Every structure is written in structure tokens, then in C-alpha cells.
Amino acid sequence: MLKKLLSFVSLSVLSLSSYSYMELNFGIGSLEYDTPYLKGNSAAAYVNFQGYTDSNVFYAVSYDLETTDLSIGASTYDFDIDTLMGQVAYAFGDLNEGAFRLGGAITSLSYTADGYDVSSLFDTSLYYLVAGYTRMSKEGINYNVALAVNLDDCDDNCEQIGGSVSFPLADSNWNFGLNAGFADGVTYFGFGPTVKF
User: Each residue of 160-181: pLDDT tens digit?
Assistant: First the structure.
């Protein structure tokens, strides 16, 4: 299902118009959990490809790998979370200068505990309404802030807020970025380079 949706999103973006801007960013991060099941810190690595078209359509595809400890009763397990996300939004203005955007996102999650796939125990596909303000330019400082609201039947972490900023590195297509995210009981910080096309 997710592969079909991502294919549809990709074809839709390709057919709308030519690309105005693209970037690839990757890096590492850390999450702090204080939820009923997850406590403490986890490590994460991410890669994200995003951009927009001449028609002000914003798009993004990202993959995150996270490893932490899962506590159930007195037992603790090595717990890995793989997240694949696709997002499409319409920007109400020129993203090169900075503009508000509104759209949707879908994530597919995969969970592994001590090497065993336990994804069947969790809701692995989540749908979000996403609103934000973004600047994506080949020159200068780029930034993004967004609010994502889970549209599924949600018990916790239903709203997430996140932001990022990236600074140019000399006279090149490279930036260095910092990003952060917050949800109920979860705090995320990450950093890494960005290359702009």
C-alpha cells in the first residue's frame, strides 16, 4: 500500500511541472523518551530527500532508523524502529523566499525487538495533516517549522511539532543543518549536512 502511495505521489509531482529546488540531507540524532513503554535515550540516523516544483508543490521522502530499549514490565528488549515517510503539500507563496504550506503525510513503521519483527503488535501506517512555514533556497539560510496532527484514532503523541535550520558552508551547494522535534513524552534533536541541487 505504501509503495503504491509513494509511486502515486512521485508520479503526481513529476507530472505537475519542473523541479525548482531539491535537496538531500542526512545525519544522526538522539531521542529522549518518557512514555509508558519507552524510557530514556535512543540513537537515530536519517536520510531525507525534499524539494518543490514550479507550481509550489512541496514534496519529501525520508527514512529514519532508530535503536533504543523497550521496557515491558520487568523485561527490557533491544528495540529498533524503521520509519519511511512520504509527504506532499501546497505552498501558498514562493518557497524560495519563505511560505506557508499545507498538506498530508503518511508513514510506515517497522518494529524489531531482540531481532524479532513485532510490527503486527502496533499500528504501522499513520496518516498526518501537516501545516508549516518553510524557506528552501539555493542561497542563504533555510528553515522550516511544522505541526503534524495524526488523523488516525490516536491515544498518545497525536500532535508533533518540529523545526530545522540549515546554514550555508562557504561558496558551495552544501549546508549544515540542525533539527528538532517534540511530541507528548518525546524530544528529538539531530544534525547533519545538506546538499542542494
Answer: 999 999 999 888 889 999 999 9
